[in-house]
Amino acid sequence: MTSEPGRRLIGVWRTNARATALLVGGLPREIWTSAVPGAPRRTVRALAAHLHNTRCMWLKMLGGGTKGHGVAIPKNVDARRVAQRDLLAALSRSAEAYVKLMEVGIARGGEVPKAAWQNFPPDLESFTAYMVAHEAHHRGQLCLVARQLGRRLPPEITGGIWGWRRLARADSA
After folding, report:
1. Are 115 and 64 in contact (CB under 8 A)?
2. Which of 16-25, 73-82, 115-124, 125-134 has the lowest mean pLDDT?
3. 34 burial class (0-12, 13-18, 19+ CB within 10 angstroms)?
4. Among candidates 14, 90, 85, 13, which has minimal Cα distance to 54?
5. Has residue 172 got a pLDDT over 70?
6. What pLDDT does residue 67 have?
7. Which of 37-46, 111-120, 144-153 has the lowest mean pLDDT?
8. For 1, which DSSP code?
9. What is the C-alpha to C-alpha distance for residues 83 and 136, in angstroms, rounded to an integer?
10. Which letter does DSSP use for residue 27 in this model?
11. Which CATH number applies to 3-172?
């Protein structure tokens, strides 16, 4: 993979990360500790924290540890206690760590390092698609849960997470 397609994929990832941060930052504070309907042991906070913690898991399996790829692994957050603003800061760190892992993939000819277990091909396109799909799935869950809890999110949030043209402009600004 040449540098240019890889840079475009990094832009896609950053746009996705902005959508996730927009949603997490836009969740009403009063539902942050609410139980997810139908899953009383899971809270909105835990569902949102899962996004960062899953990023950290993949970073550790693919780019960290003893493999020597030089990707610093952010710390997990406590899904039972993390404050919304602290999770937003953690999401920013894990999003940039993903960029570093993607840069490793570009340098390796378009393949991220392989993990002992992974359920996607190692090419950078599949990696990016898989991670974006995972986050989109949970963004949808968070929007639905907010609505089920009687706190329908405002259009600037629900429409904003789909406004990828606007979210992508931050890379060209």
Report:
1. no
2. 115-124
3. middle
4. 90
5. no
6. 58
7. 111-120
8. -
9. 22
10. S
11. 1.20.120.450
**Separation between Cα atoms, residue 71 and residue 59, nearest integer Å:** 8
How many secondary structure helices (H) and strands (E) does the chain include? 6, 2
Spatial separation of the C-alpha atoms in residues 79 and 152, rounded to whole Å: 23
Q: What is the C-alpha to C-alpha distance for residues 146 and 157, in angstroms, rounded to an integer? A: 12
Q: Give, for 56, the enclosing helix (H) or strand (E).
A: helix 44-63
Q: How far is it, in rounded angstroms, from Cα 80 to Cα 55?
A: 18
Q: Report how far residue 44's alpha carbon sits from residue 25's, in angstroms, rounded to the nearest whole number.
A: 12
- Tell me how far apart the alpha carbons of residues 150 and 28 are, in angstroms, rounded to a whole number: 11
Structure tokens at 101: 């892992």
DSSP secondary structure code for residue 30 in this structure: G
Residue indicated by tokens 């039972």: 80
DSSP secondary structure letters along 68-127: ---PPPPPP--TTT--HHHHHHHHHHHHHHHHHHHHHHHHTTSBPPPPSS-SS-SBHHHH
Predicted pLDDT at 69: 79
In one-letter notation, the amino acid at residue 109 is: G
Domain locations along the chain: 3-172
Residue-averaged pLDDT of the chain: 93
Using a 10 angstrom Cβ sphere, with 0-12 exposed, 13-18 middle and 19 or more buried, the burial of residue 13 is buried
